[in-house]
Amino acid sequence: MDVSDIFDNLNEAQRQAVTSESAHLLVLAGAGSGKTRVIAHRVAWLVKALKNSPHSLLTVTFTNKAANEMKGRIESLIGQDMADFWCGTFHGIAHRLLRRHWKEASLRKEFAILDSEDQYRVIKRVCKSMGLDETKWPAKQIQWYINKEKDECRRANQSEAGNDYFIEQMTKVYLEYEQLCERESLVDFGELLLRTLILLSTNQDLLSHYQKRFKHILVDEFQDTNEVQYQLLFLLKGKESSYTAVGDDDQSIYGWRGAKSDNINRFTQDFSGTDIVRLEQNYRSTQTILDAANSVIKNNQSRMGKELWTNQKEGEKISIYSAYNEDDEARYVVGTIQSWADQGRALDETAILYRSNAQSRALEEVILREGLPYRIYGGQRFYERVEIKNAMAYIRLIYGREDDAAFERVINLPPRGIGTKTLDVIRKKAKEENYSLWKASCDLIKNDGLTSRARGSLSRFMKDLENLQTEIENLELKKVVDHTIQRSGLIEYHKKEAGEKGRTRVENLAELVSAAGDFEPELEDEETPILKSFIDHAALDAGEEQAEEHESAIQLMTLHSAKGLEFPLVLITGFEENLFPHRLSIAEPGQLEEERRLCYVGMTRAMEKLCIIHAEMRNLHGMETFNPPSRFLREIPPELTVEIRTGGAVSRKSFEAKGIIVQGEIPETDLVLGQRVVHEVFGEGVILNYEGHGANARVEVNFDSSETKWLMASYAKLRPI
Known about the structure:
By secondary structure, the protein is an alpha/beta fold. 45% of the residues lie in helices and 15% in strands.
């Protein structure tokens, strides 16, 4: 390969990034701007033009798939095998270092790596040995805490509990877990990074060796780095090291799992002599889509700034559909996709995006009804999700005690002290007598066939289920499902799962209540009890296989899962306040900005056509809500959009007549919902709600001091920030 060939198909900004000779380089790569191409070509430039050995380069990315694709591109550009070229994920590179220097890292040569499930089981062992009640100290929550501490570079003896009993107890478990892993030479994913950081921090000779070896370090997706990853990169900086960080602060959407968007700003401060190159030419979307995305993201204050543009056509306007409810939303979405397919376009060119996993339920039901193939990207269908299966198992067992699969699933869920040994005894009895596990349990309790502790736990479980059946008699289906979920303890059980996962599971359980409320049995099932029809409906939906891997199918996914993907047609659903942006983010400026970045990511997935849908009323998580359209919708210039209205939508005036807010602007004032304001006494805050208009308007403000106050707008002298 000739050196001049490296510049083939590069625009001016890409060429500048590839050939930069600055000590350090920060490439702000906008969505669809060809960042992977830039990294691959820069490696080729460093090797071919500047005569660096491939052994002197280290390239880091975030997934094994991305690392393999990167390595393949580089080998193709350079025209030689790069077997010894260090290109991999943070965890992969840390593993490589620890395998080479296991002795210096105080590990056995054949140390074992714990994946997430293995780590969970080890933590459960530790909790059991400490005599901890799992209902009060769930292993999942402890796992989340330990991983978070490691991401922040903290060992158990470095955690600061203060007077916090919860943190104090978590730290004790962390310490016991740490000691067990040391004894058995076990290394979890967080430990790979933390131990590598400690190894290099405490072994100057080793650190010096790798600082001299890696003259050029290139990092992809820099906005997704967490603290331990940043510290590791900073530690490897030698006197002659050159760094290339490629990322987009506008696409930093993983703060909830430890990523620090501010690391891009830290890079320019900690790596002196940094040159900044902005990749703003987009090769994916129409100019209309880019203008809309630019208009939304510019409302974030803490960004380095860039403006995406394209040489492509202007493109059609963004469709805005105001649905009556989530069913109307689903019908519009599926109808739009069917029209797309009728024009000869493929189904796999379409993607439906949503903020919450629970939103997929209404969409899936309409898609299934229309007989269209679809695929949940990076997730499971609604009725296949573990929390839904747990709840349905309780409902199945209430309907029929002979359901052994349901019995086995919930007998110790949530944990109630009924272990595998007890279950084995029940199974054996059932097999010998050829009857159900429930009947076997009854006989074992009656005839003292169990230990007193096991008998007590099993008796309470069965009595609770019988009481539950009595309580739901004569209730409508929705209340049956709601009461069962509440009384089963599943809500509290899943709430204890830390982070986004726990919250998502609880939201999905609430959505199951909505599904029960919406359920209408088929006409031919009129003789079948409605509870049985609902159970069968859930089983059939769960049994529907997803589209074959190579079959053209509609793609459904969360906005987080959509990052890095692109589709000709994108439909973003649930564009409403409290859903998107999520209600938990609205009062916190930093989290609200991350929600806006998530919106930017979603919009820039669209190549040709973008549709945004919001519902005036939504039955979600088991509750009927009336939320105004998302503030992000108001941030899109109206000249870039076209409103789609059908007979299915209702007038907003009908909602306003009921006192329901459906507009962001507060009438006859200069204030807007979601606006940050300052009060001379209470300080800064965010407007959450309002009543009335003009001189009589009252506004609800959540102040940074954590106080929420209702104030008369005309007297409060609130000043917009």
